[in-house]
Automatic annotation (TrEMBL):
GO biological process: recombinational repair
Organism: Candidatus Dojkabacteria bacterium
Binding of ATP, residues: 24-31
Protein name as it appears in the record: DNA 3'-5' helicase
Catalysed reaction equations from the record: Couples ATP hydrolysis with the unwinding of duplex DNA by translocating in the 3'-5' direction; ATP + H2O = ADP + phosphate + H(+)
Entry keywords, A to Z: ATP-binding, DNA damage, DNA repair, DNA-binding, Exonuclease, Helicase, Hydrolase, Isomerase, Nuclease, Nucleotide-binding
Entry's Gene Ontology cellular component terms: cytosol; DNA helicase complex
GO molecular function: 3'-5' DNA helicase activity; ATP binding; DNA binding; exonuclease activity
Domain UvrD-like helicase C-terminal: 313-656
InterPro entries per the UniProt record, alphabetical: DExx_box_DNA_helicase_dom_sf, DNA_helicase_UvrD-like_C, DNA_helicase_UvrD/REP, P-loop_NTPase, PDDEXK-like_dom_sf, PDDEXK_AddAB-type, Restrct_endonuc-II-like, UvrD-like_ATP-bd
Record flagged with keyword Metal-binding: no
Highest taxon above the source species: Bacteria
EC primary class: isomerase
Family matches, as PROSITE patterns: UVRD_HELICASE_ATP_BIND, UVRD_HELICASE_CTER
């Protein structure tokens, strides 16, 4: 990507006279334009950071935008509101929801939690048709999807009920259809009522509820209109109807359609998008938003970015030729503009045929031809024999690909330069098999997410066995873990012997070891034995099976004693040696797996935080529902960026990415374009707010598929391969070539699909699949894992022990949960809740909150109680009563209605050189205001032991917070305090310029050491309190 702006980009960045539509073709630098526009508005003084709102669609995109803006801004600036639509609306509702009678501490449900919530109330709903008694929960997922789509179209329960009544009066409507509509409309209303009563929302509620808030309370909308003078929307072609309404409300008021021409003309709204890359109709995106933008803002300036800094001209010309088939439903046609992209990227290599078609007879052959071309491109083809006789020798003793360490500069391409794009995840199966058979490393996370990762699946099996140890499927998954060292034949023998005796696997192991897991003295039975307790099982494997019983025994004991999920799983990982098995491998894959394990621990922690008082049985049910509906946390593939392997992705996943070489595979009818599948419960046409260009939905579906093909093709920088086969799987009927091939290549491709039937029969064989170790690679650098953002807590950890920092923040090893952290979170939440209500009352909204007193503080405390990490219930109860006592003392000693609280949990991002330091100031109080400058006190609550003043003065926290507050928020910090809640002591300090400068230098030094890779341990007496003491060889215990 270019670094300087071209003429149109510069014009887009600096325009400031009204609405702006930036039509940014593929590879034209739209992200650079939108981020540089934000920086320009701030640096030119046209807007303060707080007056800019930038909206995008994913947390990852929002984070990347924040990072780019950080790089463009000078040291110290107040954070710009850059977020997803949902995060933005969540923030509004937590601040303003009280005006709708909404609890600001509502629980935001995940799809799985929404499913469980609906299922819990299943027989409370007025369901009949959609609750078959033989399988009552059969339709839950489709019903919830239906309601979510209604919310995307700004259809409230009242709107749906009104439609149902009018539908009844339509004599042409079939009785059954009316009953379906009426039942769904009734349940939609009932569901919203139940959620409101229990203070729950799901993601679909967020935007439509904000719209309701703005319509009912226009003064609140006006406040946000006054705050955000500039609004920027990225990927505007992907917005749905309600998102577009939200943006227009913020610009034009409660009734955007009634806005005057003058108001529309001066609206400072910038939308960036490309109608040719609108590919998310299936999740509610409305392409009409970008197509009709000029109707809403008739005086908008339209800037078209056509200078492409990615692809060769031949690829761009073919892509443009294809997408023109969507005319006249394109901006190029309706706006009479030229969207043909011009190649501006310099290419050193000479490439013949930048666009190449490969047609195979069978899908197996297509996969093999792709594989051999990959080997040719990377200079590895001559290293192979012409048959599969050495397939099983393509991996070393660690299961690492033979090609992974090969670097051939003369070949020109690495494996990582190559991407294979498919229309659907399952279409990648045969291609993956072919890559495996030749030992080629590849990266493919697929649709399954975190729960199906091989390093996570055994952890899930372990937890499930604690709720039902007779589940032999989960037992098999646990027993076959490489960790235990059992041979495949031994695992099979164990399963067979158990079945023969009509016992579950674990019951069989108990029988042979003559123990019962969960009994008082079971651990004494697991001393390693000199002989095997099983026939045909080695002594080592026999003892490993005993160890499995041992970890299950401990897990069951912890389950009975009500230990937290994270505690139970943490002990399993340590006692079994599971974490050690990864830490002993210095490979990218091992580091990736450890970080995935850490992410799974975080997922469980979040579940426990959201579900106080939960137990393992509830969690396993939740997990089962999550897996059933396909909800699984995504895997962060960025961790594998440095891994030299072929990229395999769906075209949807590849949007926003680019690769020197792209294979667009499986280009036949019914695969690409895919079959037209409509929703099981479609929204009635009368309720669809989007204005679709034409009534033929099939043609619009084909246009969307064509746009998807366009997106896939324009990912290629230097060479694009279009591949297809005449026959797929066991199909007897020949496939037709994709219609898009004719359009892209500007010729009839059907001639390439003439086959020799005898030759096809010979080729239709399965490719041998090698061991699934092709992701392994062995670099020693950690550069890809080093952070760009640091918090005070992280820096404090590094200062204490760099090796602990490595474990916790680079490798992200899960730390054992502890009650001190839980208690601290609870106390902070209680104090924030109390002062939030105090600020509401002080702001003139008295009566909207409860009376502020010690009882109210204790009530908030109990409502936010976390029970994670306590030794047992008695420990928890004692701690809980103690907390109530100290909070009553706090209220008596420190709460004053004369306090002028400005901010609570004020987050900051402070720039130091090329890095960002983050933090959250618990409280900022106004002391006085002199000549427009607010003089403040910053306060941080502490729930741990009290520290003396000398120790505090050496600490970085208060000087850092003072630096950030003064640089970012425009205040003068007169006083900085640590308030030790449990001890009823407040230590106050004056932060000098000298101490702030010393802190700044110290922080920069710590960051420099982290970035340099200095992670040597600092053994001390503190090692005995470290969560990683059992895996750290340097620990002083």
């Amino acid at each position: 990507m270019q670094f300087s702006l071209n003429e149109n980009q510069k014009k887009a960045v600096e325009y400031d006279r009204g609405p702006l539509l930036i039509i940014a073709g593929a590879g034209t630098g739209k992200t650079s334009v939108i981020t540089q526009r934000i920086a320009y508005l701030i640096n030119s003084g046209k807007a303060k950071s707080s007056e800019i709102l930038a909206l995008t669609f994913t947390e990852k995109a929002a984070s990347e935008m924040v990072e780019r803006v950080d790089q463009l801004m000078p040291i110290g600036y107040e954070e710009v509101q850059i977020s997803t639509f949902h995060s933005f609306c969540d923030r509004i509702l937590r601040q303003e929801g009280i005006h709708l009678g909404l609890d600001s501490n509502y629980s935001l449900m995940t799809p799985a939690q929404s499913y469980i919530f609906f299922r819990r109330h299943l027989f409370d709903f007025s369901l009949d048709l959609f609750r078959p008694l033989g399988s009552p929960s059969q339709h839950i997922s489709n019903i919830l999807k239906h309601f979510s789509r209604l919310q995307d179209e700004d259809v409230s329960p009242e709107d749906y009920l009104k439609y149902a009544k009018s539908f009844r009066r339509n004599t042409e409507a079939k009785k059954e259809h009316y009953e379906e509509v009426n039942e769904l409309a009734t349940v939609y209303k009932e569901l919203q009522t139940f959620k409101h009563k229990e203070s729950r929302l799901d993601f679909g509620d967020l935007i439509i509820t904000v719209l309701q808030l703005f319509r009912k309370k226009p003064h609140i909308l006006e406040r946000y209109q006054n705050q955000f003078k500039y609004i920027l929307v990225d990927e505007f072609q992907d917005t749905n109807f309600t998102q577009n309404v939200l943006v227009n409300m913020l610009m034009l008021g409660k009734d955007p359609e009634k806005a005057t021409r003058a108001l529309r003309k001066k609206a400072k709204i910038t939308v960036v998008g490309d109608d040719d890359q609108a590919i998310y109709k299936f999740r509610g995106a409305a392409i009409s938003n970008i197509l009709q933008f000029k109707e809403v803002y008739p005086d908008c300036l339209r800037i078209v970015l056509t200078e492409n800094y990615r692809s060769r001209q031949e690829i761009l010309d073919a892509a443009h030729q294809l997408i023109q088939k969507n005319d006249p439903y394109r901006l190029e046609e309706t706006e009479n503009i030229d969207k043909k992209l011009l190649a501006m990227a310099p290419f050193e290599k000479v490439v013949s045929d930048p666009v190449q078609l490969i047609v195979a007879d069978t899908s197996n052959e297509e996969a093999e031809l792709i594989t051999k071309e990959v080997l040719t491109l990377t200079g590895n083809k001559d290293r192979l024999k012409n048959d599969n006789s050495i397939v099983n020798k393509k991996y070393d003793s660690k299961g690492q690909s033979v090609f992974v360490d090969i670097v051939d500069e003369s070949s020109g391409y690495n494996f990582n330069d190559i991407a294979v794009l498919v229309r659907a995840n399952q279409h990648a199966d045969e291609i993956i098999q072919a890559l495996k058979s030749y030992g080629i490393p590849y990266k493919f996370t697929g649709p399954k997410g975190l729960y199906n990762r091989p390093e996570i699946s055994p952890l899930i099996s372990f937890l499930k066995l604690l709720t039902d140890y007779t589940d032999s499927v989960e037992a098999f998954n646990l027993v076959k873990m490489p960790l235990w060292g059992l041979k495949p034949r031994e695992v099979i023998d164990i399963m067979r012997l158990a079945r023969d005796r009509k016992l579950s696997t674990i019951e069989f192991l108990e029988q042979r070891w003559e123990v019962k897991i969960g009994d008082e003295n079971i651990t004494t039975a697991f001393d390693p034995k000199g002989t095997s307790v099983f026939e045909n099982i080695s002594v080592e494997s026999s003892n490993a099976l005993g160890k499995i019983l041992g970890v299950l025994d401990k897990g069951i004991r912890e389950t009975i004693s009500k230990a937290s999920l994270t505690s139970i799983l943490y002990d399993f990982c340590l006692d079994s040696g599971y974490l050690d098995s990864f830490l002993n491998e210095d490979t990218y894959l091992a580091q990736f797996q450890v970080q995935n394990i850490g992410k799974y621990f975080n997922v469980i922690k979040e579940y426990e935080l959201s579900n106080p008082g939960t137990d393992i049985y509830e969690y396993v049910n939740y997990l089962d529902y999550s897996i059933d509906i396909g909800e699984s946390p995504s895997v962060d593939t960025d961790l594998l960026e440095g891994y030299n392997a072929v990229n395999i992705l769906t075209v949807h996943s590849a949007k926003g990415l680019e690769f020197p070489i792209v294979f667009l595979a499986n280009l036949v009818s019914d695969r690409f374009p895919s079959r037209n599948r409509s929703d099981v419960l479609p929204i009635p046409d009368a309720l669809v707010k989007e204005e679709i260009p034409e009534s033929d939905s099939k043609q619009e579906k084909l246009r969307e598929e064509r746009r998807l093909f366009y997106v896939g093709a324009t990912r290629a920088k230097e060479k694009l391969y279009l591949t297809a086969a005449k026959y797929y799987a066991e199909a007897k009927r020949k496939k037709k070539p994709s219609i898009f091939l004719d359009e892209f290549l500007d010729r009839k491709v059907s001639e390439d699909f003439v086959e020799d039937q005898d030759n096809i029969q010979k080729k239709n064989i399965s490719i041998v699949t090698a061991r699934d170790y092709t992701e392994n690679i062995d670099p020693k650098e950690l550069q890809g894992y080093l952070p760009k953002t640091f918090s005070y807590t992280q820096l404090k950890t590094y200062e204490l022990c760099p090796k602990k920092y490595l474990y916790q923040y680079i490798l992200k090893l899960p730390a054992k949960p502890n009650s001190a952290l839980s208690f601290g979170i609870t106390v902070h939440a209680a104090l924030k809740g109390l002062y939030t209500e105090f600020m509401t009352e002080s702001g003139g909204l008295k009566g909207l909150t409860s009376e502020i007193n010690a009882d109210r503080l204790v009530y908030i405390y109990n409502e936010n109680w976390l029970n994670i990490g306590y030794e047992n219930k008695r420990h928890e109860n004692i701690r809980k009563r103690h907390g109530e006592k100290i909070l009553r003392s706090f209220f008596s000693e420190f709460f004053s209605k004369n306090d002028k609280v400005l901010e609570l949990e004020k987050f900051f991002r402070y720039k130091l050189g090329n890095y960002i330091v983050t933090g959250a100031i618990d409280r900022i109080d106004l002391l006085k205001e002199v000549k427009g400058v607010k003089h403040v006190e910053i306060i941080d609550y502490k729930t741990g032991k009290r520290r003396d003043r000398k120790e505090i003065e050496k600490d970085l926290q208060l000087p850092l917070y003072a630096l950030a507050a003064e640089s970012l928020f425009g205040v003068k910090v007169d006083k900085a305090s640590l308030l030790f809640v449990e001890h009823g002591v407040k230590e106050e300090f004056t932060i000098s310029d000298k101490s702030k400068e010393a802190a700044r230098v110290k922080i920069q030094d710590l960051i420099a050491r982290v970035v340099s890779g200095d992670f040597d341990a600092k053994p001390s007496h503190m090692c005995k309190y470290c969560d990683y003491r059992n895996i750290c060889e340097d620990a002083q215990i």
